[in-house]
Amino acid sequence: MSDIFLFGAVSHLPLLRTVLGRGLADLQILPCDLQDHTGIVGPDETGLLLQPEDGKTVSGLLVRGLGDRDIARLAYYAGALGKQRKTVTLHPGDGSVLQGQVFFQRPSQQNAPAQGSTGQACSDEGWVVKWGSFAVRVATEVMVHFGHLSEKQIASRLPGIRIRAAAWVAAQARPADLTRDLSRDVVVHAHHHPYSNFFAAQEMDLQYRRFDGTLSPVLNRGAQVLGQAVVVLPYDPARDAVLLVEQFRTPVFIAGDRAPWGIEPVSGLIDPGETPEMAAHRETKEEAGLHLSRLEPVASVYSSSGSSTEFVYIFIGLSDLGNVNKDGGLAEEGEDIRSQVVGFDALMEGIDTQQFCDMPLVTAALWLGRHRDRLRISA
User: Fold this and answer.
1) Whether residue 116 has pLDDT greater than 70
2) Could you give the domains of the chain?
3) pTM summary value
Protein backbone atom coordinates (compact mmCIF):
# COMPACT_ATOMS: atom_id res chain seq x y z
CA MET A 1 0.00 0.00 0.00
CA SER A 2 1.57 3.29 -1.13
CA ASP A 3 -1.00 5.78 0.27
CA ILE A 4 0.61 7.43 3.30
CA PHE A 5 -1.01 10.04 5.54
CA LEU A 6 1.61 12.49 6.76
CA PHE A 7 0.98 14.53 9.84
CA GLY A 8 3.15 16.79 11.93
CA ALA A 9 6.79 17.50 11.13
CA VAL A 10 7.06 15.14 8.17
CA SER A 11 4.17 16.92 6.43
CA HIS A 12 6.56 19.88 6.05
CA LEU A 13 7.49 19.40 2.38
CA PRO A 14 11.21 20.32 2.66
CA LEU A 15 11.46 17.67 5.37
CA LEU A 16 9.64 15.15 3.20
CA ARG A 17 12.11 15.82 0.35
CA THR A 18 15.00 15.26 2.75
CA VAL A 19 13.59 11.99 4.07
CA LEU A 20 12.84 10.66 0.57
CA GLY A 21 16.14 11.95 -0.78
CA ARG A 22 14.54 13.18 -3.99
CA GLY A 23 12.06 15.61 -5.48
CA LEU A 24 8.29 15.34 -5.11
CA ALA A 25 7.11 16.28 -8.61
CA ASP A 26 5.96 12.75 -9.50
CA LEU A 27 3.90 12.31 -6.32
CA GLN A 28 0.26 13.16 -5.76
CA ILE A 29 -0.01 15.17 -2.54
CA LEU A 30 -3.51 16.05 -1.35
CA PRO A 31 -5.02 17.56 1.81
CA CYS A 32 -6.56 14.82 3.90
CA ASP A 33 -8.22 14.32 7.29
CA LEU A 34 -7.89 11.62 9.92
CA GLN A 35 -11.00 11.56 12.06
CA ASP A 36 -11.33 10.70 15.74
CA HIS A 37 -7.74 11.69 16.45
CA THR A 38 -5.98 14.74 17.87
CA GLY A 39 -2.48 16.14 17.89
CA ILE A 40 -0.54 16.32 21.15
CA VAL A 41 2.51 18.55 21.44
CA GLY A 42 5.50 16.30 22.03
CA PRO A 43 7.69 16.63 25.11
CA ASP A 44 10.38 18.50 23.15
CA GLU A 45 7.87 20.84 21.38
CA THR A 46 9.40 20.09 17.97
CA GLY A 47 6.40 18.23 16.61
CA LEU A 48 3.03 16.67 17.29
CA LEU A 49 2.07 13.15 18.23
CA LEU A 50 -1.17 11.45 17.25
CA GLN A 51 -3.62 10.24 19.85
CA PRO A 52 -7.12 8.77 19.40
CA GLU A 53 -9.87 11.13 20.55
CA ASP A 54 -13.51 10.81 19.50
CA GLY A 55 -14.92 13.78 17.65
CA LYS A 56 -11.57 15.35 16.83
CA THR A 57 -10.02 15.63 13.36
CA VAL A 58 -6.38 15.93 12.37
CA SER A 59 -5.53 17.54 9.05
CA GLY A 60 -2.49 16.46 7.10
CA LEU A 61 -1.34 15.35 3.67
CA LEU A 62 -2.12 12.22 1.69
CA VAL A 63 0.86 11.19 -0.42
CA ARG A 64 0.21 8.78 -3.29
CA GLY A 65 2.60 7.17 -5.74
CA LEU A 66 5.41 6.34 -3.32
CA GLY A 67 7.71 3.52 -4.36
CA ASP A 68 9.12 0.75 -2.21
CA ARG A 69 12.32 2.68 -1.50
CA ASP A 70 10.31 5.78 -0.57
CA ILE A 71 8.29 3.73 1.92
CA ALA A 72 11.46 2.18 3.32
CA ARG A 73 13.06 5.60 3.83
CA LEU A 74 9.92 7.00 5.51
CA ALA A 75 9.72 3.95 7.76
CA TYR A 76 13.39 4.30 8.68
CA TYR A 77 13.01 7.96 9.62
CA ALA A 78 9.79 7.35 11.55
CA GLY A 79 11.23 4.28 13.25
CA ALA A 80 14.25 6.22 14.43
CA LEU A 81 11.82 8.68 16.03
CA GLY A 82 9.96 5.84 17.76
CA LYS A 83 7.03 5.47 15.35
CA GLN A 84 5.51 2.59 13.43
CA ARG A 85 2.92 2.27 10.63
CA LYS A 86 -0.74 1.47 11.11
CA THR A 87 -3.60 1.21 8.65
CA VAL A 88 -6.35 3.82 9.17
CA THR A 89 -9.43 5.17 7.43
CA LEU A 90 -8.79 8.50 5.70
CA HIS A 91 -11.01 11.23 4.27
CA PRO A 92 -9.40 13.02 1.30
CA GLY A 93 -12.01 15.79 1.25
CA ASP A 94 -13.79 14.79 -1.95
CA GLY A 95 -16.41 12.76 -0.09
CA SER A 96 -14.57 9.49 -0.55
CA VAL A 97 -13.18 7.22 2.12
CA LEU A 98 -10.04 5.15 1.68
CA GLN A 99 -7.59 3.02 3.59
CA GLY A 100 -4.10 4.34 4.09
CA GLN A 101 -1.24 4.20 6.51
CA VAL A 102 0.00 6.62 9.13
CA PHE A 103 2.99 6.65 11.45
CA PHE A 104 1.96 6.44 15.11
CA GLN A 105 4.25 6.56 18.10
CA ARG A 106 4.92 3.09 19.42
CA PRO A 107 2.64 1.86 22.26
CA SER A 108 5.38 2.25 24.86
CA GLN A 109 5.57 5.97 24.02
CA GLN A 110 1.90 6.82 23.68
CA ASN A 111 1.62 7.84 27.31
CA ALA A 112 4.81 9.90 27.29
CA PRO A 113 4.46 13.29 29.00
CA ALA A 114 3.13 15.95 26.66
CA GLN A 115 3.08 19.69 27.10
CA GLY A 116 -0.40 20.33 25.75
CA SER A 117 -2.75 19.49 22.94
CA THR A 118 -3.64 21.28 19.75
CA GLY A 119 -5.56 20.66 16.57
CA GLN A 120 -3.05 22.52 14.40
CA ALA A 121 -0.83 20.61 11.99
CA CYS A 122 2.92 21.05 12.31
CA SER A 123 3.07 22.51 8.80
CA ASP A 124 1.47 25.72 10.09
CA GLU A 125 3.55 28.83 9.58
CA GLY A 126 4.46 29.23 13.26
CA TRP A 127 5.91 25.74 13.49
CA VAL A 128 7.86 26.13 10.24
CA VAL A 129 9.46 29.37 11.45
CA LYS A 130 10.48 27.91 14.81
CA TRP A 131 11.29 24.28 14.01
CA GLY A 132 11.28 23.74 10.23
CA SER A 133 15.01 24.18 9.60
CA PHE A 134 15.85 22.22 12.74
CA ALA A 135 13.66 19.27 11.73
CA VAL A 136 15.16 19.21 8.23
CA ARG A 137 18.68 19.19 9.69
CA VAL A 138 17.82 16.33 12.05
CA ALA A 139 16.42 14.37 9.10
CA THR A 140 19.52 15.14 7.02
CA GLU A 141 21.82 13.44 9.53
CA VAL A 142 19.39 10.60 10.25
CA MET A 143 19.01 9.73 6.57
CA VAL A 144 22.77 9.75 5.92
CA HIS A 145 22.81 6.46 7.84
CA PHE A 146 19.93 4.81 5.96
CA GLY A 147 21.14 1.38 4.92
CA HIS A 148 24.12 1.53 7.29
CA LEU A 149 22.76 1.84 10.82
CA SER A 150 19.58 0.32 12.21
CA GLU A 151 16.61 2.37 13.39
CA LYS A 152 17.49 1.34 16.96
CA GLN A 153 21.06 2.55 16.56
CA ILE A 154 19.89 5.89 15.17
CA ALA A 155 17.32 6.25 17.98
CA SER A 156 20.10 5.95 20.55
CA ARG A 157 22.02 8.70 18.73
CA LEU A 158 19.10 11.13 18.46
CA PRO A 159 20.03 13.30 21.47
CA GLY A 160 23.38 14.13 19.89
CA ILE A 161 21.85 14.53 16.43
CA ARG A 162 19.29 17.01 17.77
CA ILE A 163 21.92 19.03 19.62
CA ARG A 164 24.06 19.21 16.46
CA ALA A 165 21.03 20.21 14.38
CA ALA A 166 20.17 23.06 16.74
CA ALA A 167 23.79 24.23 16.61
CA TRP A 168 23.76 24.18 12.80
CA VAL A 169 20.58 26.29 12.70
CA ALA A 170 22.14 28.76 15.14
CA ALA A 171 25.30 28.95 13.02
CA GLN A 172 23.22 29.69 9.91
CA ALA A 173 21.65 32.62 11.77
CA ARG A 174 24.99 34.26 12.60
CA PRO A 175 26.12 37.11 10.28
CA ALA A 176 27.50 36.08 6.91
CA ASP A 177 30.84 37.19 5.48
CA LEU A 178 29.62 39.75 2.95
CA THR A 179 33.01 39.90 1.24
CA ARG A 180 32.73 36.30 0.01
CA ASP A 181 30.20 34.21 -1.90
CA LEU A 182 30.20 30.72 -0.38
CA SER A 183 28.44 29.28 -3.42
CA ARG A 184 31.47 30.31 -5.49
CA ASP A 185 34.32 30.42 -2.99
CA VAL A 186 33.89 26.96 -1.44
CA VAL A 187 33.40 23.91 -3.66
CA VAL A 188 32.39 20.68 -1.88
CA HIS A 189 33.17 17.54 -3.86
CA ALA A 190 32.16 14.98 -1.21
CA HIS A 191 30.75 15.00 2.32
CA HIS A 192 31.40 11.96 4.52
CA HIS A 193 29.88 10.99 7.89
CA PRO A 194 32.21 8.27 9.24
CA TYR A 195 31.04 8.49 12.85
CA SER A 196 27.88 9.64 14.61
CA ASN A 197 27.03 9.18 18.26
CA PHE A 198 26.79 11.66 21.13
CA PHE A 199 29.49 13.53 19.24
CA ALA A 200 30.16 13.06 15.52
CA ALA A 201 32.95 13.28 12.97
CA GLN A 202 32.51 14.56 9.44
CA GLU A 203 34.89 14.91 6.50
CA MET A 204 34.73 16.93 3.31
CA ASP A 205 36.69 16.85 0.08
CA LEU A 206 36.66 20.53 -0.82
CA GLN A 207 38.31 23.52 -2.40
CA TYR A 208 38.33 27.06 -1.07
CA ARG A 209 39.13 30.40 -2.67
CA ARG A 210 42.68 31.50 -1.82
CA PHE A 211 43.73 35.09 -1.27
CA ASP A 212 45.26 35.26 -4.76
CA GLY A 213 41.83 34.50 -6.25
CA THR A 214 42.52 30.90 -7.29
CA LEU A 215 40.90 27.79 -5.88
CA SER A 216 42.97 25.55 -3.64
CA PRO A 217 43.63 21.93 -4.61
CA VAL A 218 40.98 19.44 -3.51
CA LEU A 219 41.67 18.89 0.18
CA ASN A 220 40.36 16.28 2.56
CA ARG A 221 39.54 17.92 5.89
CA GLY A 222 37.62 16.72 8.93
CA ALA A 223 35.98 18.12 12.03
CA GLN A 224 34.65 16.91 15.31
CA VAL A 225 31.00 17.99 15.05
CA LEU A 226 29.58 19.17 18.35
CA GLY A 227 26.71 21.33 19.49
CA GLN A 228 26.66 24.70 21.17
CA ALA A 229 27.87 24.88 24.76
CA VAL A 230 27.76 27.24 27.71
CA VAL A 231 30.49 27.91 30.26
CA VAL A 232 29.61 29.66 33.51
CA LEU A 233 32.11 30.84 36.13
CA PRO A 234 30.03 31.56 39.25
CA TYR A 235 31.34 34.63 41.09
CA ASP A 236 30.35 35.99 44.50
CA PRO A 237 31.24 39.72 44.58
CA ALA A 238 30.72 39.95 48.36
CA ARG A 239 33.18 37.13 49.07
CA ASP A 240 35.35 37.92 46.05
CA ALA A 241 35.42 34.23 45.19
CA VAL A 242 34.50 31.89 42.36
CA LEU A 243 33.18 28.35 42.25
CA LEU A 244 35.13 25.72 40.31
CA VAL A 245 34.07 22.15 39.57
CA GLU A 246 36.20 19.04 39.29
CA GLN A 247 35.22 16.05 37.16
CA PHE A 248 36.70 13.25 35.07
CA ARG A 249 37.15 14.18 31.41
CA THR A 250 37.36 11.26 28.97
CA PRO A 251 38.92 13.26 26.08
CA VAL A 252 41.78 14.33 28.35
CA PHE A 253 42.33 10.70 29.32
CA ILE A 254 42.18 9.60 25.66
CA ALA A 255 44.81 12.23 24.89
CA GLY A 256 47.19 10.40 27.22
CA ASP A 257 47.14 13.04 29.95
CA ARG A 258 47.87 11.58 33.37
CA ALA A 259 45.65 14.16 35.11
CA PRO A 260 42.21 13.61 33.54
CA TRP A 261 40.26 15.06 36.47
CA GLY A 262 39.96 18.67 35.37
CA ILE A 263 39.32 21.90 37.30
CA GLU A 264 36.81 23.94 35.30
CA PRO A 265 33.88 26.33 35.39
CA VAL A 266 30.37 24.93 35.09
CA SER A 267 29.72 23.86 31.49
CA GLY A 268 27.30 21.91 29.31
CA LEU A 269 25.60 21.60 25.95
CA ILE A 270 22.67 23.77 24.91
CA ASP A 271 19.52 21.74 24.29
CA PRO A 272 17.28 22.41 21.26
CA GLY A 273 14.90 25.25 22.06
CA GLU A 274 17.12 26.68 24.81
CA THR A 275 18.81 30.05 24.73
CA PRO A 276 22.40 30.20 25.99
CA GLU A 277 21.13 32.03 29.05
CA MET A 278 18.57 29.32 29.83
CA ALA A 279 21.23 26.64 29.47
CA ALA A 280 23.60 28.59 31.71
CA HIS A 281 21.07 28.72 34.55
CA ARG A 282 20.12 25.05 34.07
CA GLU A 283 23.68 23.75 34.00
CA THR A 284 24.68 25.79 37.05
CA LYS A 285 21.75 24.33 38.99
CA GLU A 286 22.51 20.76 37.83
CA GLU A 287 26.27 20.81 38.35
CA ALA A 288 26.63 23.06 41.39
CA GLY A 289 23.14 23.48 42.88
CA LEU A 290 23.48 27.25 42.55
CA HIS A 291 20.99 30.00 41.73
CA LEU A 292 22.45 32.78 39.60
CA SER A 293 21.16 36.31 40.18
CA ARG A 294 22.66 37.67 36.97
CA LEU A 295 24.69 36.62 33.96
CA GLU A 296 27.53 38.70 32.55
CA PRO A 297 28.43 37.70 28.96
CA VAL A 298 32.15 37.16 28.46
CA ALA A 299 32.51 35.81 24.91
CA SER A 300 30.78 33.86 22.14
CA VAL A 301 33.49 31.91 20.34
CA TYR A 302 34.54 28.74 18.55
CA SER A 303 36.53 26.70 21.06
CA SER A 304 38.96 25.29 18.47
CA SER A 305 38.08 26.37 14.95
CA GLY A 306 40.76 24.22 13.32
CA SER A 307 39.33 20.94 14.58
CA SER A 308 35.88 21.36 16.14
CA THR A 309 32.51 22.93 15.32
CA GLU A 310 31.79 23.64 19.01
CA PHE A 311 30.57 27.19 19.63
CA VAL A 312 30.80 28.31 23.25
CA TYR A 313 28.97 31.04 25.15
CA ILE A 314 31.03 32.04 28.21
CA PHE A 315 29.45 33.82 31.16
CA ILE A 316 30.29 35.07 34.62
CA GLY A 317 27.33 34.17 36.82
CA LEU A 318 26.78 36.26 39.93
CA SER A 319 25.79 34.10 42.89
CA ASP A 320 25.92 33.71 46.67
CA LEU A 321 28.62 31.13 47.41
CA GLY A 322 28.00 31.07 51.14
CA ASN A 323 26.40 27.63 51.25
CA VAL A 324 27.77 25.46 48.46
CA ASN A 325 26.93 21.79 48.09
CA LYS A 326 30.21 20.07 47.25
CA ASP A 327 28.59 17.24 45.27
CA GLY A 328 26.73 17.82 42.00
CA GLY A 329 25.90 16.55 38.53
CA LEU A 330 23.21 14.28 37.11
CA ALA A 331 23.61 10.57 37.78
CA GLU A 332 21.64 9.70 34.63
CA GLU A 333 24.29 11.52 32.59
CA GLY A 334 27.16 9.74 34.33
CA GLU A 335 28.29 12.94 36.07
CA ASP A 336 30.27 12.89 39.31
CA ILE A 337 31.15 16.49 40.15
CA ARG A 338 32.86 18.07 43.14
CA SER A 339 32.70 21.82 43.74
CA GLN A 340 35.14 24.11 45.50
CA VAL A 341 35.11 27.82 46.29
CA VAL A 342 38.33 29.62 45.40
CA GLY A 343 39.23 33.21 46.26
CA PHE A 344 39.93 35.61 43.41
CA ASP A 345 43.62 36.00 44.31
CA ALA A 346 44.10 32.22 44.38
CA LEU A 347 42.29 31.95 41.04
CA MET A 348 44.60 34.46 39.40
CA GLU A 349 47.67 32.84 40.94
CA GLY A 350 46.54 29.58 39.37
CA ILE A 351 46.23 31.34 36.02
CA ASP A 352 49.68 32.94 36.31
CA THR A 353 51.34 29.67 37.30
CA GLN A 354 49.52 27.76 34.55
CA GLN A 355 47.88 25.49 37.10
CA PHE A 356 44.66 25.38 35.08
CA CYS A 357 44.48 23.61 31.71
CA ASP A 358 40.90 24.56 30.75
CA MET A 359 40.87 27.38 28.19
CA PRO A 360 37.33 28.67 28.94
CA LEU A 361 38.32 28.96 32.61
CA VAL A 362 41.38 31.04 31.68
CA THR A 363 39.26 33.21 29.37
CA ALA A 364 36.56 33.78 32.00
CA ALA A 365 39.11 34.47 34.74
CA LEU A 366 40.97 37.06 32.66
CA TRP A 367 37.67 38.78 31.80
CA LEU A 368 36.75 38.75 35.49
CA GLY A 369 40.06 40.40 36.29
CA ARG A 370 39.16 43.30 33.97
CA HIS A 371 35.59 43.74 35.26
CA ARG A 372 35.84 42.65 38.90
CA ASP A 373 35.76 46.17 40.39
CA ARG A 374 32.60 47.04 38.48
CA LEU A 375 30.89 43.82 39.54
CA ARG A 376 31.76 44.36 43.18
CA ILE A 377 30.41 47.91 43.14
CA SER A 378 27.16 47.00 41.36
CA ALA A 379 26.42 43.88 43.44
Assistant:
1) no
2) 4-166 (3.10.490.10), 183-225 (no CATH), 228-378 (3.90.79.10)
3) 0.89
